[in-house]
Amino acid sequence: MLSKRVIPCLDVRNGRLTKGVKFVGNEDIGDPVESARRYYEEGADEIVFYDITASAEARGIFLDVVERVAEQIFIPFAVGGGISSVADMRAVLLAGAEKVSINSAAVKDPRLISQGADAFGSQAITVGMDVLAVPVSAEIPSGYEIVIHGGRKRMGLDAIAWACRCQELGAGELCVNSIDADGTKDGYELKLTRAIVDAVSLPVIASGGAGEPRHMLEAVTTGGASAALIASIVHYGQYSIRECKEYMAAHGAKMRLTW
């Protein structure tokens, strides 16, 4: 059995670490490079960076931040936001990232997933999914809809169907973020997480809603996720990465403990 992963997520806007609730009300909370270094030293398994306004503002990724992070940490990290071509992927990977996370651009042009997988291998391609709970309909039979551009644009696309399509196109991993749970600290959307896990054979990262280590444990047990993405609980010092991983290990989850 593979170890479950704890992955801090750093949302970046204008080169600064930021955090909001349900994709709104973002506030500046520090330097993303310093935070990445701290989480690496605390035992994070991976780190994810999102340039949260790059897609909506139709601009490129923050390569300077990527390069500075690569000099400070020695664990895998993924970068997303504003990546809309194989050339963008190549630039991010050459700047030091191990993975790219594509979201809005992949929904608009699914060929980007297969193009990236062909160029760099599926292991380098994570597809991020921002998902909103909606009434069940013929168009959205699962009751979960894909939303792009940082929660700004609903796509009329069923999340389960999209997850299966991403796998077919060569994605190596899915990061499933519940907009309804994002930043609330009330726990992950476990029904959504489990539905995606059951629909695909890819590793699935649960995202949105972690408020305590118990929530992370639920994500990788009840939800079946391969990893738990966290933000607020570590950004604001409520828990350390070490505390989270020790709690999960003590309650039966297989974890990589490096201390």
Short description:
Helices cover 33% and strands 27% of the residues. The chain is built from 10 helices and 12 strands. It has helices at 32-42, 63-70, 86-94, 104-108, 111-120, 159-169, 190-199, 213-220, 232-235, 241-250; strands at residues 5-13, 16-21, 24-30, 47-51, 77-80, 99-102, 125-133, 144-148, 153-158, 173-178, 204-207, 227-230.
Structure description:
The structure is a single chain. This protein is α/β, with parallel strands linked by helices and 259 residues long. The protein has a single domain, classed as TIM Barrel, CATH 3.20.20. It contains ten helices and twelve strands. It has an eight-stranded parallel β-barrel with strand order 1-4-5-6-7-10-11-12, surrounded by seven helices. The longest helix is centred in the first third of the chain and has 11 residues. The mean pLDDT is 91.
CATH class: Alpha Beta
Helical content band = 25-40%
Largest sheet: 8 strands, parallel, barrel
Please list the strands of the largest sheet in the order they lie side by side: 1-4-5-6-7-10-11-12
Rg result: 17 Å
* Total individual domains: 1
CATH architecture: Alpha-Beta Barrel
